[in-house]
Design goal:
The structure is a homodimer. Chain A is α+β, with helices and mostly antiparallel strands and about 450 residues long. Chain A is built from 18 helices and 16 strands. Chain A has 2 domains: about 290 residues, BirA Bifunctional Protein, domain 2 (2-Layer Sandwich), CATH 3.30.930; about 90 residues, Rossmann fold (3-Layer(aba) Sandwich).
Chain lengths: ~450, ~450
Amino acid sequence: MKPAIPKGTRDFAPYEMVKRNFIINTITNTYRHYGYRQIETPAMENLSTLEGKYGEEGDKLLFRILNSGLKPEDLKKSDSINAITEKGLRYDLTVPFARYVVMHQNEITFPFKRYQVQPVWRADRPQKGRYREFIQCDADVIGSNSLLNEVEMVMMIKDVFQKLGLGVTIKINNRKVLAGICEAIGVPDKMMNITIAIDKLDKTGWHKVKEELLSKGISPSAILKLEPILQFQSDSISALSFLKNQLSASETGLKGIHEIQSVFDSLSAVNFHFQTIQFDHTLARGLNYYTGAIFEVKVNHPGSNFSGSLLGGGRYDDLTGIFGLPHVSGVGISFGIDRIYDVMDELKLFESINLQASSTQVLFVNFGEEEVKYILPVLQQLRAASINAELYPDAVKLKKQISYADSNKIPFVVIAGTNEITNNQLTIKLMDQGKQETISSGKLIERLKTENIVKQK
Amino acid sequence: MKPAIPKGTRDFAPYEMVKRNFIINTITNTYRHYGYRQIETPAMENLSTLEGKYGEEGDKLLFRILNSGLKPEDLKKSDSINAITEKGLRYDLTVPFARYVVMHQNEITFPFKRYQVQPVWRADRPQKGRYREFIQCDADVIGSNSLLNEVEMVMMIKDVFQKLGLGVTIKINNRKVLAGICEAIGVPDKMMNITIAIDKLDKTGWHKVKEELLSKGISPSAILKLEPILQFQSDSISALSFLKNQLSASETGLKGIHEIQSVFDSLSAVNFHFQTIQFDHTLARGLNYYTGAIFEVKVNHPGSNFSGSLLGGGRYDDLTGIFGLPHVSGVGISFGIDRIYDVMDELKLFESINLQASSTQVLFVNFGEEEVKYILPVLQQLRAASINAELYPDAVKLKKQISYADSNKIPFVVIAGTNEITNNQLTIKLMDQGKQETISSGKLIERLKTENIVKQK
């Protein structure tokens, strides 16, 4: 048999893991710096927890687990899919988090700042950049209405992309501004339709959005009023004052403007670079549970024309209500690891980052039993000094061992033959420079550290 | 609805995650120090990859994923479970690894040293310490026959438990020794039955093992010869020479003894503590693919009488053959995270480890807008210095904020009211000592570092 993996799923090779871990660790370190605490939930949830939370389309995309111990004849007797499946794989981290908060509400001290990094599964049609299994990397605060949470979310986003070395624009809007716009154009009850349509403005342009709005029964006169509002493009400060004007009759709209203004004010207090953040009143985000701030991140880096979004998030007023704990407000963000990886890879950003510390740094050549006995204690010293080092396990030809170092991108090869042993020395080969030098065996760590420091800066 | 999670699965709270991560990071750091490289494989594998690899019992324990898009009427038409399920959740990391090696054989430079830390799923009957979803933490070398791999496995095991602060005994045996014993007692063809029976010696005692052997058709005369061999207990050196004697007529048996001897010799070269390792010729390990060395780890720590095994492993001569790549020898180990966690928790070993660096270290009290503006820049300095710090998001009563710090075990609370702001100071409250002091605001990081250093040593 020829082995294969299910479509839409992936294996990750060591060189990919090192880069993925770099992204994930950068995000989780930042989450921890801001006081977020990690939780994990099971991959399998009861279908009663998952169903009905992602719309009709989402329900179809749930992977269902067959109940254990079923026999073929049980299938004939089953009248529904639910009769043979009670569990499913989680579809995102937000619903399991809401379930977690409700189940553990008596152990949790609110506000609860949690982060979670786990895979999710969706039976989507696989396509470029879209997978059936992928990692989500979420942070949420639940149980606090303070806008400082939004402020800190923006600061975390900035910190992460700064550490990744990737230029981005953080877009921020507020669902209350969108509600205000709907009021201002005279269709306060059509907010959901308008949000979903506006969400596509980026990809399809105004013409298509207009068509969709018409098809959803929005009157031509409302659309006529909407157009100049959506077409208005400017820096954040001007946009805020333009919208303040437009929405002067909408209490909700003004509240939204005020919330954004307040986030900007707090960011000033920490000298936040306002090139990084942009108030964009056309930002809509399709998902329907957001009620306040919404966030999105776009690449803004020389050489990239990637237009997708690297992060999404926002505030929701009542996520846990469906599980029996109403009126708990929360705000959260979710980084798109796969997209960040692809963009960074395309821009060759990983090349300027020292990922060596998480790969093997030194290979010791194996010439046979005697040489190995000389090497083993040195090897242990390196490991005790947290230097990743290995000994080629078999005493094969030198050429093969060097080629192993080469394929695995191991930068230093240490050779100890009869000469070296007699003089208590080691020969060290610097793979990328193609040169080698012989040093006293006690000086190895010192010598490697010099090299590493050179590489790290 | 009252939310719940599927039986045999678990949520992990922040305080549990910190401890679990400490164990997992200790293991993976050690793996990397020894030159192992991480891979990941999908949670879902094709059932054709999984089925038939874990025996009949194992096949029953596979979680199967229902094919997408099935309708109730499709069930009636289905004659087998396989007709409606093509994928399953991985049952261990070894079979997916074998599949990975075969699929990627042209990209891999052998010997391939890989580690992998991912959850696995088994539809086992849930019971204390046995879960339906749990994390495995494996390292394997594939494509090398050298016994140095076994040596390094033992060294890694020692390093890990030393860093965890948990006293253990590493037991080592060799399947060839077991084969030699079967030859010596005259039943060379009964190796599998004898291995499976001996595996229970620990738990059930010799009497029950004898019963099982009789029931499997082992002759009383063979059992009579087996008894003194199994009953022989001694230090490793004496046991090796006793067995060498007993197995003098068995070429395979002597080869096994020689292999163990060679591992012990190499360990001497690095001054390995021989209290930690024990040659135990009654160690059998039920799983049937091992062909050389076998490993197991038992707790050997004052105050614990836990008798289960914390790690298992061994050498297998042909794991990838079933996927079309024969004659590739490998050796691997797998740490039991959940058991290690339970033992360490019971022994209160986590208390002497500084886990604070991965939790929040400082809470800033929130007295309102003005105070927050004073605090935000200080907060950012702490985070830039990799100190995990948070600001209580709402300006609620001080008592509530202090109690938040208390519940979340945040050791330092920083307070800045009108007085502090006027004098450019901060008041720092040391939660565990119940005392507080006022310092210049520029001295905070310095002050915290002193405290941390005191705690770390």
